[in-house]
Hints:
With 451 residues, the chain is mainly α. The chain is built from 17 helices and two strands.
Amino acid sequence: MTTDDHSFHRTDDDRLDARALVLLTLVAAAAGVVAGFVGGAFRWLLTRLDAWRVDVVDWSDHHGPVGWLVPLAISAAAAAAATWIAIKVPRAAGSGIQHVEAVERGQAEPPTLMVVPARFVGGLLSIGVGGLVLGREGPTVHMAAAIGAAAGRFARATTDEIRGLQTVLSGAGLAVAFNAPIGGAMFVFEEVAKKVRIREVVWTLAAVATAVTCSRVVLGDMPDFKVSNVSAPALATLPLFVVFGVLVGLLGVGYNWLIRACLSWFEALHRIPAVVKAAAIGATIGALLLISPDLAGGGDSLTQRILDGHRIAILSLLGFLAIRFVAGPLSYSAGTPGGLFAPMLALGALSGLLFAWLINLFSSTLATELALPLVLVGMSSLFASVVRAPFTGIILVIEMTTVTSAALPMLAAGAGAVVIASLVRSPPIYDDLRERMLRADKAAKQPPSTQ
């Protein structure tokens, strides 16, 4: 078995000495403190910029055609500026999780501290100012990983230990991004490392604990989403959730394909400067903002409205689903700092609402009972299909909503989503993105052709 296999195993070859278990645990905890405050500040500023973006759209509505151009211009300029930053600091482009995984596998060098300001500012521009349909978790994970690697270098750790510290700090970053400490810890072992080593378990416990504690100093201690009491669905409805999981799995397969396709299409337009392509994408997102602010951004406000029981007409629901399905991959192809997780959660919530509408055609009572569970299951199952880390997705949704009553449907639907995505041979998204990154690195090192 190689570390490139999408597998999960335990190794027992750790150096379980005092240095690994005590000194480097303290290093991981200290790095978690820094990552918690940096990630907390990043998230706090994004929240403020989300509100500011809505205010800009409201202002433009009262200033006629000229006013309508303002959101387009702001989004275009923000996307272009964020892409310029990513050109200057190439590791700042995209999610960053694929780089963390490449480092863990020894395929790339650990990130430098230059990644932190580049992703911090670039993420604020692309996600906050520009409203691109990207997630905060990608930059937060990568910034935390860079802080972990820097802490390891400062402590004169070995190359293997530095890789381990950047890996465990990536989980601390995810925990901060979603206020989900257990989900962040699970992410380390299920998605990034795919193996369990005792020393990294201890480092993860320390790093996640200090990071989330410090982020809560900045943001407060509250779940990401407020959800009313959700009754556990009857066991007899589990087959419905399996069917739903399979359908969401196919949705995830399509989403994966569209991400890869958009990246390939925009790479093919090599004659057009990357900044110009990003500006065009930003202007497109700015136009969506004029239609509805919920069509742009990470999608947290849209997800919250769905969880609040807000009714959405079927045509609007289909429109939101279709537009955000395309806008996410389109935004990612701009090459700005930004992740994939948060937009997927909104897309999964919309898919749950759509399936509830279909059930309503046969039984309005059953549809009402299953609406919220389906929304929660849609969030975790789309994650399972796209990322192929079902337990991480389930734990994230449970921690973000503090709802445990839908755990069994999440497990059943997650199984269906993973099975169908695997049967049709859709690669896990970060495996594909990592391979793309490594190919680009290899091409960049080759001397230019003299022909």
